[in-house]
Amino acid sequence: MSLADLLPLLMFIGAIALLVAGFPVAFTLCGVSMLFAFIGATADLFQLSLLSSLPLRLVALMENDLLQAIPIFVYLGVVLQKTTIAADLLEAMTAMFGRRPGGLGISTLLLGALLAPMTGAVGATVMTLGMLVLPAMLRAGYDHRLASGIVCAAGTLGTILPPSVVLILLATMMQSGFVEAMARLGVHITSPLLTKHIYLGALVPVGLLLLLYIAYAAFIAWRYPERCPPQPLAPGRRLDGRRLLVAFAIPVGLILGMLGSIVTGWIYTVEAASCGAILVTLYAFARRELTLDLLGDVLRTVMRLTAMVFALMMGALTFTLVFRGLSGDVVVARWLAGLPGGVSGATAAVMIAAFLIGFFLDATEIILLVVPVTVPPLLMLGADPVWLSVLLAINLQTSFLAPPAGFALSFVRNIAPPEMSTGSIYRGAAPMICLQALALALLWARPDVALLAVDRAPQSLVKEPPPKPPPGFRVDLAPPEEPPPLDMK
Question: What is the pLDDT of residue 241?
Answer without folding.
Answer: 61
